[in-house]
Amino acid sequence: MQVKIDTKEKFTVITPEETSLNDSFSETLKPVLLDCLEKPVKNIVLNLKNVISVDEVAANKLASVQQEFYENNASFVICEVKPEIEKQFDQFELLDLLNLTPTESEAWDIVQMEEIERELMDGEDVEFEK
Q: Does domain 3-129 have CATH number 3.30.750.24?
């Protein structure tokens, strides 16, 4: 699977260049995403602007990858999802679980807000330990 990777200061934007996310997703895109958890910039914005279909296996893997990011104190936001993909996520009962934004700019905002939230939460933990 061809992807475009653009690393910013607080996050990495990954844009699949394929039009379909299917079972091959697990063998190609998932490792690329999870590899980001090992890097200094571990937040991901997944831009699906080119994707016009997604199968249930790939959609479920996206949800599990997102969960893995949040368990590791990293953000995972999906943006520029076409209406037909949103419908597919809804059919797979994943729409409410996924962190979706209409635009890449809004995804950046979410990542930055979650970063601030994590910093504040870390600061509170230090206060309680004293």
A: yes
User: What is the H or E stretch that residue 76 is in?
Assistant: strand 76-79
Through-space distance between the first and last CA atoms of the chain, rounded to whole angstroms: 49
Q: How far is CA 69 from CA 50, 52, 130, in A?
A: 23, 24, 29
Summarize pLDDT for 28-70 with one digit per residue, the tens. Answer: 888 888 899 999 989 999 999 999 999 999 999 999 999 999 9
Give helix then strand counts, H and E, for the chain. Answer: 4, 7
d(CA 108, CA 94): 22
Residue among 55, 56, 69, 68 nearest 19 (CA) = 55
Radius of gyration of the chain (CA): 15
Q: Give the phi and the psi of residue 47 in degrees, each rounded to 5.
A: -95, 115
